[in-house]
Amino acid sequence: MKSRSWVLFAPCLAALVLTARPASSAGPQVSPAQALFVDAVTLMEKNQFDAACPKLEQSFALERVPGTLFALGDCEEQRGRVATALRWYDEYLATYETLPVAKKQDHAERAKQARAQREALRPAIPQLTLVLLPGTPASIAVTLDGRQLATSSLGVPIDLDPGEHQIVTQLPGGPSKTTSVKLGKGQRERWPLVFEPAPVQRPDPIDGNNQRVSGNSSNEPASTTGGQRMGGFVAGGVGVAGVLVGAIAGGMAISAKNAMEQDCAATAGNVMTCQTQAGVDAGNRATTLGNVSTAGLVIGAAGLAVGAVLVVLDGRKTKPSGEAPGPTVTARVGGGASGVGVSLHGVW
């Protein structure tokens, strides 16, 4: 490294010093760019490339000397950033072609070395191909190591330095997703781009005045519909239980009546006369169970009817504000000396 650096950089260093403007009779004045270049070459001779390369970039930014481009390619190559080194060599050779004939002769050896190094570097340069998956929106934004990529850069190999690289994808209005990929020298990698979908923006409902409102536009709370359905299920459950109680009590009443008829007989005026206390008890049980059966069947039928109505009404959409309230229904169950009854009341 030392022999190559000094042999190839010495002409450039000499050119920088010779073109400096004299500050006094004591000797030439060294410009900031020249001082940076000398410091960088000294650091490169000590294999301190991480410190040398930035100084060379600062020097080239101050004075765009072709030899500094070559030095940059050599420095980046030595510290392992092969893709960056290749770009500096390419820029140096492009600048070399624009030099006058006399200047080309001065750079002939460095140009030959740059071409050789460029060809040697190509197989060692990692390449990353970012692939759009089917269905990926065209509006996706992709950045690689903080640099936003054009659509034309997707699906084609990108030369990168070895190491870890950050990929960020984002859809308009959606969250960004960051992934990382680590590449070694000469590695070729195809990387599918993934992204987080943007949240769905649902439009606010329109009220009766044709104005957009936020939240629920119904006069009732949002939970009213769900509560009505639940009430329907509860009423239906009560109805089923009532029917079962009525049926069981009815069966027991029939059995008690049969037992009474075996011990009792009807006299004038349809008055039952029983021979034993067992017959009397059977008659009383038949009467009580009959009333229970009737009440259970009536309440069960009412519960089933009310439950069905509530479930059906729950399926309907709520009325916009300003319109009359929708159908409501209530059930009332009552009883008296003549028996048990049920009635439905409401607005339909």
UniProtKB/TrEMBL annotation:
Annotated stretches, region: Disordered: 168-187, 198-228
Q: Where is the composition biased (Polar residues)?
A: 208-225
Identify the keywords attached in UniProt to this record, alphabetized. Membrane, Signal, Transmembrane, Transmembrane helix
Q: Which SUPFAM superfamilies match?
A: TPR-like
Q: Which residue spans traverse the membrane?
A: 294-313
Signal peptide location: 1-25
Parts forming coiled coils: none
Q: What is the protein's name according to its record?
A: Tetratricopeptide repeat protein
